[in-house]
Each structure stands twice: as C-alpha cells, then as structure tokens.
User: Fold this.
Amino acid sequence: MQRRGRGRIAYPYTVWMAIFIVIPLFLILFYSFTEGDIHNIKDLKFSLNSYKKVLEPIYLKVIGNSFVLASISTLICLIIGYPVAMIIANTDVKYRNLLLMLFIVPIWMNFLLRTYAWMSLLSPNGLVNRFLLWVGLPKLEIMPGKGAVLLGMVYNFLPFMILPIYTVLSKIDKHVIEAANDLGGNSVITFMRVILPLSIPGIVSGITMVFLPAVSTFVISGLLGGGKTPLIGDLIEQQFLSSRNWHFGSSLSIILMVMILISMAVMSRIDNSPEEEGRKI
Amino acid sequence: MDINTTKLLKQGTIKMSKNLIELRNLTKRYNDMTAVDSINLTIKENEFVTLLGPSGCGKTTTLRMIGGFEDPDEGEILFEGKLLNNVPAYKRNVNTVFQRYALFTHMNVYENVAFGLRVKKVSNSEIDRRVKRMLKMVDLEGFEKRNVDSLSGGQQQRVAIARALVNEPKVLLLDEPLGALDLKLRKEMQIELLDMQRSVGITFIYVTHDQEEALTMSDTVVVMNKGVIQQIGTPQDIYNEPINRFVADFIGESNIIEGVMLEDYKVSFDGLVLDCVDKGFAPNEPVDIVIRPEDIRIVVNPDEGMIKGTVTSVVFKGVHYEMIIESDTREYLVQRTMMFPEGSVVGMNVQPADIQVMKRGDMPCSVEEEEE
Assistant:
C-alpha cells in the first residue's frame, strides 16, 4: 500500500518528463525525417533530404570543427584541471574551501556575462591589447577566431573538470598513498600507479561534463569566434531562428545527440574498467 | 664473517643480539602538543617489540616516524647504525601493515602483493615465484585474481601482510593490524602472525592498545603514555613488576594501594606491616603497592587472614569468580576459582613475592579516561 502511495508522488514528474522531454524529442525526430511547410501538417511528407544535407562538405566541416574544438578544450581543461584539483585536495582543510570557492564563484555569474567580459578583454581594442600597446608589445589578435573560442570554452567549463576530479582525489585514503611509498614507490610511481588509476572515475565524469556542453555550445563561438568558425550549435540555432529550416536543424540535433551518446558510451566503458587500466600502466 | 658465526646466526643461537633500530631522544610535536616526548629505545634483530598504550599515547606516531611518514622534530632514528631521519619512506628497508590495511582497491590480490616487487623492477618470473609463495604462506592460494574489495576483513589483513612481507624487509611495522577484526579471528591471527614472525625471522614492531595482545605476542613490551615511555620489559616483567601506577593499572586488573616503605623488605599500609621482596627505597618513603587480584588468597576463617573483610559482590567470569571484598579501610578485587557467597566474612592472605612496590611518581592521568 505504502509503496503504491509513494509511487503516486512521482506522477507529476512523469507527466512533466512526457510533456517537456519525450514529446519534444519525438517532434525533433519527426521533423528530421520530413520536409515541407512545418505549419501545415498535411503538407509534410517523409524525406531523408535533411540528413543528406548534413553530409555536404561545408556542414561536415562544421561538425568536425565542433568535435575538434570541444576535444581540444576538454584536453586543456584536463591538463589544467587535474593539477589544480590535486593542489586543492592537498591543501590544508582550513584553506581548502576558500580555494575551491575561487574556482566555483565564476559559475554563479551569468554565462553570457562572463563571455561578454572576455569579449571586451580580447577585442582588437580591448583591455589586453591596450595594455600590450602600453608596454610596447605586439597586438594579440586571437579574437575573433578559434583561439578566443577555445579560451572561452576552457574558462567556462574548467570548474566542471576540477570539481569531480577534486572530489575523487580528496576521497583517496591517505594511507593508500603512504602504502605505495612504503613499498618503494617514489612520488612519480605512486602517482602513475596508484593516484591516477584511482582518480579515473573523476577524470571520466570531468571529461563528460566538459565535452558535452563544449561540443554543443553556440554562444561562445558566436561571440568570441565572430562567426568565422561556426560550430554545430551555431548551425542548429541558425536553422531554427534565422534560416527557418526546422527539418535541417532537427536532423543536425539528432546527429549531435547520437554522437554524444556514442562518446558517453565509450567513456562509461573506460570508467568501468579502471582495474585493467591500472594494471597495464 | 667466519663460517662458524654464519652457521650460528643461521641456527638462531646468536639471534636477537644485534641492535637493528635505535631511537635517540625522538620527539614529535603537533602545534603545541607533544605527541612523542624524547623517547629512547633500542630494538634488536628478530625481536618482536610491542608499543602499548592508550590512544593518543604516541605509539602510532613513533611507528610512523620509523616508517618515514612523519618527520621527527628532534632526535635520531638509527637503522643498523646509520641515521635514517632524512631517508624518504620509499628508500627505507622497512614495510608497514596499516591499520585499515590500505590496500590498492584498483588492483587484484596478486597485483597488490606484487606492487613492491614491480616497483623494484624484479623480473616477472621472480615476482611470480615470490608472490605465489607469499600467498601460500598467508593461506590465500587461489585468490590471485580476486578483487580486494570482495575479501573478508581477515583476508584483506593477510593480503596487507603478504604485500609487506614479500619485499623481505628487515623490519615489519604493524599499526594495530588486528583492530578491525572480531575477537575470535583476532586470536587466530595473533598466533598466525607470531608463527610468521618466527618463520621469516624478521623484526616486528607492533602497535596496539590491547594489553592482552601485547602480552601474548611480544618479546619486549614498551608501555607508553602521553608520549613518554613508562616501562620497557618482557611481558612477565611488565605484568609482575609494573614500574608505576599507570603500568599496573593499564596492564591487567590490579589493586593499587598507597602505602609507606618502612625499610628494605617491609611495607606498610592501613596499619598493617607486610613482608615484601622490594628494597632500595628511602626509609618511610611513600609508595604505591600493586596486588594482582589472582594473588590474593582467601581463607574461610577470618582470623587466619592478614586482612579481614566481607564479600560484597560476586561475578562469575568463566575461568574464575571475581569478588569484591570490603575490609574496614578499602575494597579489594579478588579472583578465585572457588566462590565465597556475598555477605560472608573471610580472611585474605598475600605472599611477599606477590606484593609489588612502586615508586610514587606524578600520575599523569588515569587510564580509564583515555582507553577506547
């Protein structure tokens, strides 16, 4: 009785899920496989044309760009985030939360606002360049361009890499590290064979949490890339808002979703086999 | 070394003769708390030494300094005559069995044990031989591929011991290794550990707060309190001749009585004058007297006893009855196999050899507060 009673509490959520997640998903799927006037249901007919359009070189390049930029920014986040997480995890408890706050506080600010801030910093006549000019150094010309987009991605998503890695690292039993030292492992061996393998779950969730928003972002490339390197997110936005080609936009979304699902499946495989990883290193 | 000496060493005739580890004025402070206060200790080869004391007495800190996980603030650690202070943990010929085992959860049993050998770049065939032999010794054959998380406490504990012993260290440090096991398993492991120590012939430094464990296993017991060594001796010495009130109270149950040493071999308390076997005190020096509960004999006729008293409580403890007998001046804890009913008036006798007289020092604290 009680179980059934409790189950009922979940009904509103089920309804919510159906209305705002499942139905839109099917709509997107429906639009992606049809063509015609979206406002006139009778006019729609089955078609694979929008998927064929995705295969055109110009769009493949956009998808490729998205994945390359997202991968690079994920890698940079990992390279910066791991040592930072390690430093925070090894900091005295008294200062640890303060340090952690420094990396989290930017998330509290609006995402757009932060990106606009970078815009005004990096623009050809922005603060950075005025400073360089004043010092007598050559101008920095990364904005608009891929460099600025990368910087924006790394800046925005870095905390999502640091947090999960920090959580895993801070949970590693100090005695396990001492045991590795005790058994003859210097700090490099201890890191490679004990700390790193034990922190793989953190790395995996960090990569997932950075890669997913990075591959589908559209604001950062729009603002910092100046439209020179459109990403798949920009393309989708464009199809829905300006080009009004919902069919093409839908098939792009579906393709992006499938790719994300595949990469998540790959990541979860790595996450589930840390033992093998650790043994081989 | 000539052949004869080598032979003798192998036969174990001159074993436990060479000094292996020396601690000199070793001190460790945390902020303004002194965890270990200028201790001196010599540990011989093949010795089973136990550091015993209540929690917070500095025993684990001492062990961690020997292992290289804590830097001493003052004093020296000598290993085979050489200063060990600045040698990092991974270069010390010492291995540790940690309190909660600290196994590598991302590796299976085999790889846990092989870790130290892999780090030292021992050949694979040699690793295989030594790991298999070690797993056989700790009775874990066939567990090679098992995940350490799937093992029971006793099995994890044995993996931890195998992981340390496979490196053939000169010294094995054990930090309350049996603390997490239940009583029966703990007793079994005590005997197993002792067997291992005898068969591999290496020095064990063992930390525990369990006095029974210390008495059962050790060649030498080091009793510590508040960072200071109270007494060093064989289990028999520590039990029979505790040096002060703390040791007497911590090791086993005891009647501790304040008295006065009248002259050599004569001690007095509660208006009684008793013969004893202790000497070397100043005339009329105030002392603490220890009488173990099993050393008090009861006679039915109160007039035949040195002390007269009434039984006020009887508890059956299995091997013996534990009785509280109240005299005019104090209560005595007595353990006898024969029961005397509550309310009966009896006499109590103590042999001179069973009276242990101790110098009265400053009592740093009572044991009860600190014990876990």
